[in-house]
Amino acid sequence: MSSLFGAYTFAAENAVIWIIASYGAYLLFRAGIFAVPQVGFMAIGAFASGVWTTRVSNSIVVGAIFGAIFAAVVGIALGFLLRRLAGIYLAIATIAFVVVVQILCTNFSITGGALGLIGIPLLPNGNSLLITLGAVIVLMIALSYSWAGRAMDVLREQSVVAAHFGVNVGMYRVALFGVSGLLGGLAGALLGNMAGFIQPGQFGFSSISQIVAVVVIGGTFRALGPLIGGVIVFGLPEVVTSLGAYATMIDGVLLLVVVVAVPGGVASLPYLAVGVVRRWRERRRVDIATLSPASSNAPSTAVGSTLTPEDETASSASSVGDILMTLQSVSHSYGGVTALDDVSFDIRRGEVLGLIGPNGSGKTTLLNVVSGAIRPRSGSIIFESTDMARMLGRPDRIARAGVVRTFQNIRLVPSMSARENVAFGAYRRAPRLLVSFSWAKARRATSEIRSQTSSVFATDRWDLPSPNARVSGLPYGTQRQLEIERALAARPKLFLLDEPAAGMTPTERAHVFGRLRELAHAGVTIVVIEHDLESLRMHCDRIAVLNFGHLLTIGEPDQVATSPEVAEAYLGV
Amino acid sequence: MARRGHFERGGVMYFLQQTVNGIAFGLVLALFAVGFSLVLANLGVFNIAHAAVFAAGPVIAYLLVIHLGISVWLGWLIVIPLAAALNVLIYFVAVKPLRARPDRELSTFAACLGVLTALQALGDKVLDQQVVRFPPAAFSVTSLHVGSLLVSNIQILMIVLSLVSFAGLAYVINRTFIGRQIRAVAFDRHASEFLGVNSELVTIVVFLVSGAMAALAAIPISLAYNDISGELGSEYIVLAMAVMVIGGFGSVYGTLAASVALGVVNSLSAAYVSSSYSEVIVFGALLLTLVVRPTGLSANRQVDRV
């Protein structure tokens, strides 16, 4: 066997195959799915391909494709069956899946029982393995720079945000299980073609540990993570042969140490270093800037020129007053508590509608219903003269239709920079390769989003940070501002804000509401929850008052503010 | 045609005999599973290294028996506190440092998996990669007739021990101050901290109890099946997960019932069909439970707040 690896052929080929399998686990981990079905997929791929090549035709390629597709189909089915599980439950279910697959393989006669299959055609050399691994890595790197990769990162760190900006969480999950199955099945098939035999005993619990070790040591959210992890886990005992007897023990200790000491895995060490340098340089820059008297921190009420809403709405912005959304007797209850009781009203195009009411009056529930976080018990919503019946309770569909929100608690994605957070807002406008197969169109859409994001940071708006700043350390008001910019990147037709000015100073508060006015001028329709009646009075076109889930009144600010019902609800007089 | 004997395959006594075997095994497995699920309820983490704590008991006991010539029973007494201490050590090394991580569940699982891998390899190393047995001189199996059933002293030990332990555990959990604190922390960690519960201490106690229960279960199992290796725990941890899910997370009685049922199914199907099909039944039931009742059998999960 001519080989690139000399004396280490077997070890190297084995490592390559396990790294390919580990990429399947990496896909799930990167999207925050804590599931370990990989070894089961490998067993399925190995035995499907083994049976095919020993009984049907001895083509290695066809066998490997058959095994991979077989495992992918099982993966999709598994992902669908387990779609409602999360956390530890999901992990246990997938471990059970691995055990069941192993037991079934041991008991079926077609898979050769406990002895497994022999006489599987052998690969002539390891080149095809290397090419396969190379292709997988290239695809994974491409994925991590794609919109799908971004969506996976947001799913991992803020799954609620992902859903509210148009990511179909359930579909992603099933698809990722499918691709994970494909990679696992492929790796399993190749394992048979490398050794010439397979046994159910190879696909048990200890193999789960091996895959988790490879991915976690390497880094669960870096495309090169599994490669680096695989080189460490499989390479170390070969390089330091005296370690041989202790190899497994060292794997275990290494896994523990990396998890505890290097949260992002070995692959993120360079990024950590770059981050430290960048932050140090930024700190110096800030120091210089504050020393120089010429630097202007004056707030600019700059035009929202970069932030016009979607073209169609911009052109129809003149027709302020026609109806954008109608809520018809929307009701919702939590257990026995009625949160919304028969609420009906219209939202007019281009208006700023304030939503006010005492604590527990149902404001946030109403916003949650409109944004899809909650499916109402009854009632309907008409948006742009279409009934949203099929979108209710589905934030991703509602976001794709053009309704976007901010959250009461800040929900930025900590691992992303300010720019990346804002850019993610455009997800609903991002090209979907599976739908529009035009690469050029996709590139154009993406570069347009990129330049729009840059222009957000280019305007010297009062408190936007540097685009590369890490969001976790930013001041509260700035994070709020970023959330608003992120939502605007989606070019919403209807923009919902849940207490955007809570906890802000009066100056900041004035800026936020000033900004909303600007947007309304540009044609965005806005619904804003706020406790401060005065702010609403100054900045809203209309105000709706909720109390105990009822719509008390809706109308012009002055009329609402002087209404006796409102006074009673608020002041008890 | 000759009438079948009671103790032949298919006879009534054979059936009862296998049922008793199954109950004995199920009760001991329940000790292990409940220890595992106490930790899960307390912290919401998946301490897979519990399997290594389980294996550590027989491995250390074996070494004590071989090198010091003591009896298995004394060895057992010695390893219980050692296993409890090992479990607490695992808490400090692999669980506590990760408590504040955003990806806490995955990273704790990975860290505990690392501990499990390392300890299993260590166990195999000290046993020279062998599967060993306690020397026959270190303990003796005697069989007693209960009615017309044959019950070994080990089985009686397994049954009595588990029943006593569960009675003790139920007393501690339900009737004592520390038990109330354990329940409070499992229900809502933050709220109990505000009410003055030292949740850190409670967690340490839970890890101690959980480790002790693992060792308590491990010695009779290793005696009954008489094989000891570093990997001893892996097989049982998977069974423990199954009964924990089927019986309901955090439910001691549910886990106990599921565990006994599993023991009986295991034993009967091994006797009448094939031992591997019992695993298909058990894990099929596990997957089915998770698919049909995704929240587990305890419906105590919070919806994501927006």
Structure description:
The complex is a heterodimer of chains A (573) and B (306). Chain A is of the alpha/beta class. Chain A has helices spanning 9-30, 38-56, 60-81, 87-107, 127-144, 147-157, 159-164, 169-195, 205-218, 225-239, 247-261, 269-291, 311-315, 363-371, 395-401, 418-424, 439-458, 476-489, 506-521, 533-539, 557-561, 564-571, and strands at 117-118, 197-198, 323-334, 337-348, 352-356, 378-383, 386-387, 403-405, 494-498, 525-529, 542-547, 550-555. Chain A has a six-stranded mixed β-sheet, with helices on both faces. In chain A, strands 4-3-6-7 form a four-stranded antiparallel β-sheet, covered by helices on one side. In chain A, strands 1-2 form a two-stranded antiparallel sheet. Residues 1-5 and 296-306 of chain B have low confidence and may be disordered. Chain B has 306 residues and is mostly helical. A two-stranded antiparallel ribbon of chain B has the order 1-2. Classes of the chains: A alpha/beta (573), B mainly alpha (306).
Short description:
The complex is a heterodimer of chains A (573) and B (306). Chain A is α/β, with parallel strands linked by helices.
The number of distinct β-strands of chain B equals 2
- Estimated share of beta-strand residues of chain B: under 5%
Q: Total helix count of chain B?
A: 11
| Number of strand segments of chain A | 12
List keywords for this structure.
heterodimer; A: 573 residues; alpha/beta; ABC transporter involved in vitamin B12 uptake, BtuC; Rossmann fold; 3 domains; 6-stranded mixed β-sheet; 4-stranded antiparallel β-sheet; 22 helices; 12 strands; 54% helix; B: 306 residues; mainly alpha; two-stranded antiparallel sheet; 72% helix; 3% strand; disordered N terminus
